[in-house]
Design brief:
- It contains eleven helices and seven strands.
- The chain is of the alpha/beta class.
- The chain has a single domain, classed as 3-Layer(aba) Sandwich (Rossmann fold).
- The protein has a seven-stranded mixed β-sheet with strand order 1-2-4-3-5-6-7.
- Helix 2 links the parallel strand 3 and strand 4.
- The radius of gyration is 17 Å and the shape is globular.
Length: 252
């Protein structure tokens, strides 16, 4: 990572930073503790730091917590392609194996939740338990966009608006990426984020190529709505007990 990215991503705390190679890509990860592996997948427009509180408490409960920057985010590689859910699920499966584990408890928030659902569908053997926060099952989400256009359809408007080239990146980064804080405030409980938290997320979004990579996930979501693999992605995971929370982000 370049010096600027290091400063934005390698935030200190009761965890260690390291690079992990998986699925032909290098990922930045923060980890803490020993015990059964818990893989933590952040959402948009965030990075591994979303899980800082969990990195502090999970080790106390006897777990090994690993929070990664998704492909294209933070200190991870930012290749020109690979932002579809199937590739992201392969990334997560590779990350679990790269930790020397056969399976893991997988926790995903937002976009990370979509990746977690897809991981459980495509690689059920690597998912010991599944927990998804603020993201419904892909099949339900896809249907509700059309059946509830004023509800879920409107809430999905940002992803749909990201289909244009170049302009969404410019909008996201305008005025020091102030839009990041606005999105987090819109999607979160009242009073969050505080100014310092907002600045940390905005600084991570300003790392070169992160804004484009982050929006590429949204573009691929729209492109893949009718793709052949979507049905497999949306099928109910087998062999991976899980839980879903609809709670809005608060204190992440």
């Amino acid at each position: 990572m370049a010096g600027g990215a290091d400063a934005a991503v390698q935030i200190g705390g009761p965890w260690n930073h390291r690079s992990v190679s998986a699925n032909g890509t290098r990922f930045h990860a923060a980890e803490a503790g020993d015990g059964p592996l818990v893989l933590l997948l952040h959402g948009f427009p965030e990075f591994w730091w979303t899980w800082r509180h969990q990195l502090a408490v999970l080790p106390e409960a006897g777990f090994r917590a690993v929070a990664v920057d998704l492909r294209g985010y933070g200190g991870s590689d930012k290749p020109p392609r690979g932002y579809d859910l199937v590739t992201a699920a392969a990334d997560a499966a590779g990350l679990i194996r790269a930790q020397g584990e056969a399976n893991a408890i997988v926790v995903g928030h937002g976009l990370g939740g979509l990746i977690a659902w897809t991981l459980a569908a495509y690689y059920p053997k690597v998912v010991r338990r599944l927990a998804v926060i603020s993201m419904g099952h892909p099949l339900r989400m896809r249907a509700s966009v059309f059946t509830d256009p004023l509800g879920q359809g409107r809430r999905s408007g940002y992803a749909l608006g990201s289909q244009l080239p170049i302009l969404p990146e410019r909008h996201l980064l305008r005025d020091g990426a102030v839009q990041v804080g606005r999105l987090l405030e819109k999607w979160s409980a009242p009073g969050w984020p505080d100014p310092q938290t907002e600045q940390i997320y905005a600084r991570a979004m300003r790392i070169p190529s992160v804004a484009h990579s982050a929006l590429e996930y949204h573009r691929w979501l729209a492109r893949s709505c009718t793709a052949p693999w979507t049905a497999a992605c949306c099928r109910r995971p087998r062999g991976a007990p899980g839980a879903t929370s609809r709670a809005r982000t608060a204190g992440a």
